[in-house]
C-alpha cells in the first residue's frame, strides 16, 4: 500500500481520536458510571487500532488493542472504573500520543509499551486488584466470544445492501484440526481463499488475533460472495488441516434478528446502567448527549485542507484581482455597457470570493483549548491542588497561523495560574474560599481582535514580593520601586529571567519565565497584560490580531511610491502648516498635545525619488506610536485605509531598514509595509 | 563523454552566459518594480510574480559592469537557488542549449570585469561560441549583500 499518501490523514485523524479519548476519559472521571462515555472511548480506540494496524504501526495498534480489551469489559459491566484503571488508561493515552507525535516527526512510532500492556492485561485478568490489596471482590469474567461477535450498524448495513444487490451473505464457522501445527497459517489460507471470491465483513476473533494465533480451534466470519453454499464449503474445505466448515446463508430475516438481539443487549445494558447510576446524573448526561449528537453531524461536514493549498489559492486569487483591475480599466476605455456590467459583476463576485478565501483560514481556538483540561488535571494532581477549568468561547475563530503559535504561551500562563495562583485546598478553606479553585479560560472577539483571558481565583500577586525580587535582580532600583503603580509592578513579571516562585517546582520556575510568553505574543502582533487583586485572584489578558496574514493598514504616498502603515501603530493623521515645524538642535519637531514630538520625513528616510508635482500645501502627518513614545511621519498623501494581505519579502533581502514586509495592491503592484517601530530613534 | 547539461542562455553586453535550466523558474519581460529603500544599487526592487513578492537584481550591477538602459529585449530570469528565489535582469535571453560537461573549462581570471568566483566555468559550444556558466551560489551570496549594505552606511 502506498502509505505516505495516507500518512497525513492518519495523523490528523489519530490526533482527533486521541483528543476525543482524552476528553471522554476526563468526562468519565466525573461520571464513572456513564457507560455511554465508555462506548465513545471504545469506538475511538477501535478506529485508532484499525488505522494504525493498516498503516503498519504495530506498537500503536498493539497498545490500543489492549486498551480496547479493558474498555470492552467496562462497557459490558464486567469491570468498574477505579483510580488504577483511570491512571493506566491515561498513561496509555500518553504513550499513544507520544507514538503519534513520533510518527509526525518522521519516526516509526515504535515504543516500548510492555509495562503498560502488562498493566492493562492485569486489569483484564483482575490480577491488579489482588496485587493492590484486599479489595479484590468478584473477579471480572472474561469477555465472551459471542458478545464480541456483534456486528455494528455499518457492517449490518453493508450486509443488507449486498443482499439487495443479489450477493449472498454467509456466516461461516471454520474448525481447524486438533493436530494442526500452524493454525494461523491455515486461517490465513482460509482468509485468502475467501477474499479472492468475496469480502470478509467481520471475523471473530479479529484478524489480528487470528494472525497471532490468539484463537482456539475455530473461528467464524461474516462473508459476502457470489458463490453458493456448496462451492463455498468446498472452497474453504480444500484448505488442508481444516476439520469442519459450516456456512449458514444469512437472510434479511436473520439479519434482523441479529440486529434485534444486539439492540436488546444494549437496552439491557442501559437499564442496568440506569438502575446502577444515580438517576438524576443519568438524566443530565442524556441531555448533554442529545445536544452532542447534532454537533457531531456538523463536524462531519468539514474537510481537511492542507494550509499550503490555501496559500496557493490565495496567491491565485491575488492574480485574479490584478486581472480584474486591468479589465476594469479596459472597460472604462471601451465604454460598452455589457462589458462594464460584466466587469462590475465580476468585481462583486471576486470580493465575495476574497472574503471566503480569507475565512477558510480561520480555525476555532477549540483546537488549542481542548488539550488544557487534561493538562490542568495532571498539574493539579501533581501539586495536590483542586482546580476546575472553565472554558468559554472555544468556538472563537483565529487565523491558522496564530492558532499554531498560541498554544505554548497559553500552556505557560495556565501552569502559572495553577502553580502560583491557586492555593492549596487547606489554605483556601482557611481563607474562606471554596476548596476547589477555578480557572476561567475565555476567548472572545472584540473589534479586529481576539482576546484570550486566563483568570484564577487564587491568591493574587503580592506587590511587595514582586518588588523585592525585582530589586534583588536589579530590574528596578529601590527608589523607582516606591513610586511604581500596581500595573507597572505587574509588568515586571514579564521582565526576563524573573520568577517569584519561592521554590522551584516541577511545573514552573524552570528559568523560562513570563518574558518568553510576552515576546511570543508580541511576535504575533499581540499584547499581554495582567490585573490582580491580592487574595482575590489574577487575570492575564491577551490581545491578538484576528489573523497574521491580513492587517488593516493606511496606504500613503511618498514621492512616487506607495507604502502601507499598519493601522495598529497609527494614533491619528493630521495636517499642519509648514511654518508650524520647529527646530530643536537642528531636528524638526512639531507641537503635539502639550508636548513636542519629532517629525520624520519618510521621503528623506527612504530616499524616495520625487517627481510628483502636486505638492500639498500643508504637511500631511501620520502620528505613530511605539509603547508610550510618539512620532510623526511626514507623507505626501493619504490614499486610504485598506485591508492588506501580508506577503513575505523573501529570504534574499533581509534586515531591511524600516520595512516589515510587502503586500500586493489591487493593481498588481507591490507595496512595502513600513515598520514604524524602526523609525523611533 | 560527459553528461549533457541543459542551460538557458542569456546575454550581458557582448558575452553569453548560461545557467542550468533546472535552476530557472521562468523568464519574464520587464514589469514595474517597487524600489526597496536602503538596499545596494544592484537590487532593483521587488516584483509581483504571480502573487509572490520576488526581489530583482540587475546582473550588470551585481557584477560591477556599467548598467545599461532597459530595452525591448531586456528580460528578468527568475532563478531559484536553495531557499532563495531571485530575478536577474539580463540584456536578453535567447536560447536553450545542451552543453557537454566535458567541454567546460575553468573560468579565466577575469571575464568582462567579472570576478572568477561568480563563474563556474566556460563552455565551448559549436565552432566558436563561448558560454560562461554562472555559479549561482556566489551570485546570490547574501553575505556579500550585507557587506555592501554596511559599506553604504
From TrEMBL, chain A:
<dbReference type="InterPro" id="IPR036641">
    <property type="entry name" value="HPT_dom_sf"/>
</dbReference>
<dbReference type="InterPro" id="IPR037052">
    <property type="entry name" value="CheA-like_P2_sf"/>
</dbReference>
<dbReference type="InterPro" id="IPR037006">
    <property type="entry name" value="CheA-like_homodim_sf"/>
</dbReference>
<dbReference type="GO" id="GO:0006935">
    <property type="term" value="P:chemotaxis"/>
</dbReference>
<dbReference type="InterPro" id="IPR005467">
    <property type="entry name" value="His_kinase_dom"/>
</dbReference>
<dbReference type="Pfam" id="PF02518">
    <property type="entry name" value="HATPase_c"/>
</dbReference>
<dbReference type="InterPro" id="IPR002545">
    <property type="entry name" value="CheW-lke_dom"/>
</dbReference>
<dbReference type="GO" id="GO:0005737">
    <property type="term" value="C:cytoplasm"/>
</dbReference>
<dbReference type="GO" id="GO:0000155">
    <property type="term" value="F:phosphorelay sensor kinase activity"/>
</dbReference>
<dbReference type="InterPro" id="IPR051315">
    <property type="entry name" value="Bact_Chemotaxis_CheA"/>
</dbReference>
<keyword id="KW-0808">Transferase</keyword>
<dbReference type="Pfam" id="PF02895">
    <property type="entry name" value="H-kinase_dim"/>
</dbReference>
<protein>
    <recommendedName>
        <fullName>Chemotaxis protein CheA</fullName>
        <ecNumber>2.7.13.3</ecNumber>
    </recommendedName>
</protein>
<dbReference type="InterPro" id="IPR036061">
    <property type="entry name" value="CheW-like_dom_sf"/>
</dbReference>
<keyword id="KW-0547">Nucleotide-binding</keyword>
<dbReference type="GO" id="GO:0005524">
    <property type="term" value="F:ATP binding"/>
</dbReference>
<feature type="modified residue" description="Phosphohistidine">
    <location>
        <position position="46"/>
    </location>
</feature>
<dbReference type="InterPro" id="IPR036890">
    <property type="entry name" value="HATPase_C_sf"/>
</dbReference>
<dbReference type="InterPro" id="IPR003594">
    <property type="entry name" value="HATPase_dom"/>
</dbReference>
<dbReference type="InterPro" id="IPR008207">
    <property type="entry name" value="Sig_transdc_His_kin_Hpt_dom"/>
</dbReference>
<dbReference type="Pfam" id="PF01627">
    <property type="entry name" value="Hpt"/>
</dbReference>
<keyword id="KW-0902">Two-component regulatory system</keyword>
UniProtKB/TrEMBL annotation, chain B:
<dbReference type="GO" id="GO:0006935">
    <property type="term" value="P:chemotaxis"/>
</dbReference>
<dbReference type="InterPro" id="IPR036061">
    <property type="entry name" value="CheW-like_dom_sf"/>
</dbReference>
<protein>
    <recommendedName>
        <fullName>Chemotaxis protein CheW</fullName>
    </recommendedName>
</protein>
<dbReference type="InterPro" id="IPR002545">
    <property type="entry name" value="CheW-lke_dom"/>
</dbReference>
<dbReference type="InterPro" id="IPR039315">
    <property type="entry name" value="CheW"/>
</dbReference>
<keyword id="KW-0145">Chemotaxis</keyword>
<dbReference type="Pfam" id="PF01584">
    <property type="entry name" value="CheW"/>
</dbReference>
<feature type="domain" description="CheW-like">
    <location>
        <begin position="4"/>
        <end position="145"/>
    </location>
</feature>
<dbReference type="GO" id="GO:0005829">
    <property type="term" value="C:cytosol"/>
</dbReference>
<keyword id="KW-0963">Cytoplasm</keyword>
<dbReference type="GO" id="GO:0007165">
    <property type="term" value="P:signal transduction"/>
</dbReference>
Amino acid at each position: 500500500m502506498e502509505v505516505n499518501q495516507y500518512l497525513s490523514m492518519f495523523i490528523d485523524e489519530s490526533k482527533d481520536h486521541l483528543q476525543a479519548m482524552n476528553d471522554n476519559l476526563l468526562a468519565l472521571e466525573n461520571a464513572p458510571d456513564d457507560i455511554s462515555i465508555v462506548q465513545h472511548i471504545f469506538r475511538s480506540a477501535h478506529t485508532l487500532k484499525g488505522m494504525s494496524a493498516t498503516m503498519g504501526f504495530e506498537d500503536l495498534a498493539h497498545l490500543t488493542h489492549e486498551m480496547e480489551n479493558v474498555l470492552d469489559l467496562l462497557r459490558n459491566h464486567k469491570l468498574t472504573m477505579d483510580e488504577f484503571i483511570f491512571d493506566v488508561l491515561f498513561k496509555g493515552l500518553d504513550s499513544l500520543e507520544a507514538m503519534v507525535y513520533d510518527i509526525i516527526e518522521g519516526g516509526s512510532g515504535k515504543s516500548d509499551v510492555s509495562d503498560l500492556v502488562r498493566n492493562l492485561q492485569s486489569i483484564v485478568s483482575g490480577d491488579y486488584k489482588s496485587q493492590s490489596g484486599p479489595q479484590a471482590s468478584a473477579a471480572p469474567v472474561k469477555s465472551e466470544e459471542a458478545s464480541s461477535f456483534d456486528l455494528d450498524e455499518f457492517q449490518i448495513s453493508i450486509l443488507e445492501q449486498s443482499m439487495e444487490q443479489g450477493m449472498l451473505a454467509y456466516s461461516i464457522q471454520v474448525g481447524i484440526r486438533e493436530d494442526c501445527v500452524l493454525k494461523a497459517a491455515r486461517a490465513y489460507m482460509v482468509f485468502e481463499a475467501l477474499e479472492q471470491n468475496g469480502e470478509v465483513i467481520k471475523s471473530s476473533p479479529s484478524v489480528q488475533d487470528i494472525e497471532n494465533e490468539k484463537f482456539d480451534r475455530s473461528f467464524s466470519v461474516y462473508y459476502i460472495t457470489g458463490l453458493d453454499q456448496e462451492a463455498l464449503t468446498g472452497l474453504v474445505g480444500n484448505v488442508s488441516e481444516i476439520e469442519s466448515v459450516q456456512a449458514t446463508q444469512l437472510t434479511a430475516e436473520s439479519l434482523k434478528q441479529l440486529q434485534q438481539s444486539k439492540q436488546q443487549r444494549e437496552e439491557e445494558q442501559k437499564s442496568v446502567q440506569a438502575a446502577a447510576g444515580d438517576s438524576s446524573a443519568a438524566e443530565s448526561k442524556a441531555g448533554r448527549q442529545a445536544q452532542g449528537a447534532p454537533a457531531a453531524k456538523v463536524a462531519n461536514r468539514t474537510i481537511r485542507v492542507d494550509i499550503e493549498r490555501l496559500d496557493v489559492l490565495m496567491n491565485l486569487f491575488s492574480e485574479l484581482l490584478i486581472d480584474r483591475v486591468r479589465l476594469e480599466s479596459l472597460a472604462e476605455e471601451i465604454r460598452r455597457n455589457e462589458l462594464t456590467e460584466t466587469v462590475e459583476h465580476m468585481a462583486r463576485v471576486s470580493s465575495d470570493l476574497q472574503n471566503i478565501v480569507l475565512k477558510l483560514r480561520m480555525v476555532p481556538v477549540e483546537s488549542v483549548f481542548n488539550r488544557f483540561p487534561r493538562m490542568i488535571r495532571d498539574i493539579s494532581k501533581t501539586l495536590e491542588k483542586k482546580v476546575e477549568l472553565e472554558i468559554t468561547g472555544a468556538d472563537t475563530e483565529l487565523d491558522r497561523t496564530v492558532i499554531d503559535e498560541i498554544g505554548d504561551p497559553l500552556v505557560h500562563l495556565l501552569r502559572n495560574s495553577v502553580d502560583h495562583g491557586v492555593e492549596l485546598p487547606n489554605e483556601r478553606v482557611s481563607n474562606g474560599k471554596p476548596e476547589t479553585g477555578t480557572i476561567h479560560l475565555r476567548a472572545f472577539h472584540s473589534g479586529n481582535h481576539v482576546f484570550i483571558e486566563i483568570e484564577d481565583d487564587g491568591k493574587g500577586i503580592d506587590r511587595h514580593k514582586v518588588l523585592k525580587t525585582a530589586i534583588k535582580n536589579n530590574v528596578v532600583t529601590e527608589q523607582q520601586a516606591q513610586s511604581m503603580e500596581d500595573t507597572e509592578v505587574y509588568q515586571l513579571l514579564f521582565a526576563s529571567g524573573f520568577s517569584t516562585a519561592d521554590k522551584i517546582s516541577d511545573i514552573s520556575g524552570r528559568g523560562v519565565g513570563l518574558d518568553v510568553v510576552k515576546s511570543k505574543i508580541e511576535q504575533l502582533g499581540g499584547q499581554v497584560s495582567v490585573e490582580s487583586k491580592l487574595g482575590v485572584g489574577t487575570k492575564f489578558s491577551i490581545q491578538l490580531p484576528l489573523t497574521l496574514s491580513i492587517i488593516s493598514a493606511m496606504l500613503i504616498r511618498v514621492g512616487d511610491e506607495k507604502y502601507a502603515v499598519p493601522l495598529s501603530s497609527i494614533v491619528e493623521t493630521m495636517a499642519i502648516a509648514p511654518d508650524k515645524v520647529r527646530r530643536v538642535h537642528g531636528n524638526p519637531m512639531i507641537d503635539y498635545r502639550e508636548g513636542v514630538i519629532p517629525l520624520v520625513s519618510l521621503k528623506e528616510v527612504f530616499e524616495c525619488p520625487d517627481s510628483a508635482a502636486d505638492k500639498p500645501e500643508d504637511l500631511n502627518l501620520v502620528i505613530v506610536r511605539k509603547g508610550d513614545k510618539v512620532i510623526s511621519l511626514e507623507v505626501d498623501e493619504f490614499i486610504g485605509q485598506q485591508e492588506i494581505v501580508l506577503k513575505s519579502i523573501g529570504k534574499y533581502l533581509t534586515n531591511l531598514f524600516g520595512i516589515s514586509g510587502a503586500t500586493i495592491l489591487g493593481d498588481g503592484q507591490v507595496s512595502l509595509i513600513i515598520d514604524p517601530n524602526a523609525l523611533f530613534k | 563523454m560527459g553528461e549533457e547539461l541543459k542551460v538557458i542562455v542569456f546575454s550581458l553586453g557582448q558575452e553569453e552566459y548560461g545557467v542550468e535550466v533546472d535552476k530557472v523558474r521562468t523568464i519574464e519581460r520587464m514589469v514595474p518594480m517597487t524600489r526597496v529603500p536602503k538596499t545596494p544599487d544592484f537590487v532593483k526592487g521587488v516584483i509581483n510574480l504571480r502573487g509572490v513578492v520576488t526581489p530583482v537584481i540587475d546582473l550588470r550591477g551585481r557584477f560591477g559592469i556599467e548598467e545599461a538602459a532597459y530595452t525591448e529585449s531586456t528580460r528578468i530570469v527568475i532563478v531559484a537557488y536553495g531557499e532563495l528565489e531571485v530575478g536577474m535582469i539580463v540584456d536578453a535571453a535567447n536560447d536553450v542549449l545542451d552543453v557537454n560537461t566535458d567541454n567546460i573549462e575553468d573560468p579565466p581570471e577575469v571575464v568582462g570585469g567579472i570576478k572568477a568566483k561568480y563563474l563556474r566555468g566556460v563552455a565551448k559550444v559549436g565552432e566558436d561560441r563561448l558560454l560562461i556558466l554562472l555559479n549561482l551560489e556566489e551570485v546570490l551570496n547574501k553575505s556579500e549583500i550585507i557587506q555592501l549594505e554596511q559599506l553604504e552606511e
